[in-house]
Structure formats: C-alpha cells, structure tokens
Amino acid sequence: xxxxxxxxxxxxxxxxxxxxxxxxxxxxxxxxxxxxxxxxxxxxxxxxxxxxxxxxxxxxxxxxxxxxxxxxxxxxxxxxxxxxxxxxxxxxxxxxxxxxxxxxxxxxxxxxxxxxxxxxxxxxxxxxxxxxxxxxxxxxxxxxxxxxxxxxxxxxxxxxxxxxxxxxxxxxxxxxxxxxxxxxxxxxxxx
Length: 191
Ligand SMILES: O=C(O)[C@H](O)[C@@H](O)[C@H](O)[C@H](O)COP(=O)(O)O
What we know:
Elements: H1 7-29, E1 32-36, H2 40-51, E2 63-67, E3 69-71, H3 81-88, H4 114-128, E4 141-142, H5 164-167, E5 172-175, E6 185-188
Parallel strand pairs: 1-2, 1-4
Antiparallel strand pairs: 3-6, 5-6
Helix pairs in contact: 1-2
C-alpha cells in the first residue's frame, strides 16, 4: 500500500500511474481498457489526467471505458458517475464514442428496472469479451474508491447484495436500499 500525504498528491500520483498503464497496455495490446469509479478522489484523478501533458501520449480512440458501479439515476444526472467522469475527463479527450460503455440510466431502455439494466450491462460486458474471457473483457485498469464504511464499487459491507450467495454467477447486479444515497445502484461483482 502506498500512502500519499494528501488528497491532491494522491490524485496526481494515481493519474500518472493510470496514464502510464494505458500507454503500456496500448504498446502491448494495441488497445487499453479502464473501469472507472466515482467519488471525490476519482473526480480529482480524472481532472489531473485531463490537465496533464502526458495524456496526449495515450491514443484515446483506442481506450475502452467501462464503469464499476453507477448510481441508478436519469442520464445526465449530476450524481451519476458517468456524468462526473464525462465532465472531468471524457469530454476533454478524443475517445471513440463506441468504446464508451456507461451503465444504463434509470430513463434508459429498461426504464427504472434496475435488474434488467444490470443484466443489460452484463450482456454488454460479455459481448465485448474475447476467447477465454466469456463474461467480462480483458480489463487493464480497475479503478476503485473506498468509502468510509469500506464499500467498493456499490458493494456495501453487510448489505445482502454484496454476499456471494446473493449475486451467484452474476457479473453485474442491482443494489437496492444502499446505505449511502442514492439508494438504487448498479455494481460489478467480484465475478
Ligand atoms: O458509492 C459512492 O457513492 C461513491 O462514489 C463511492 O463509491 C466512492 O468511490 C467512495 O465512497 C470514495 O469516495 P471519495 O473519493 O469521495 O472518498
């Protein structure tokens, strides 16, 4: 574990590592994939990447962007991790829109059916996976923040949805009654 002196330095250091990882992945594979998260540190990391000169060493048109969890709210809601990431970073770099994979919004094709939305995202992950990875694609970087209660993605300690007996083989789940608002979320599982 690396502990940095303050949040700003942490964000700058993580941004540098993220950028380097994407460059290295593209050098090795031709493409790179990243799973984004939300929260204050993630937002600062996104802004630090956007502000760095090194960001131009990444071929953003060959970066696949996924999310590890999402607040199940209408598209464009400022609380959505997608909205925050677009504002802080994604709008500033020349991504291929076809490679940006936000989790469904609550006014999307499944409406407010979070279970159906989770299944839709699981199908998107599965369809992007290559041979040997039948449920999720190869992911170079998985960004995760840790909440005050120890939650990562939208898996909250002691919440029934976070128990392996609950999610089974599912790679994406709806989370209802989250202890931190908003109460309905979508989350990757450890699968
Ligand atoms: O679930 C959420 O609503 C948060 O976005 C959460 O997942 C976040 O990543 C951590 O709570 C760390 O947040 P901070 O970076 O703000 O400490």
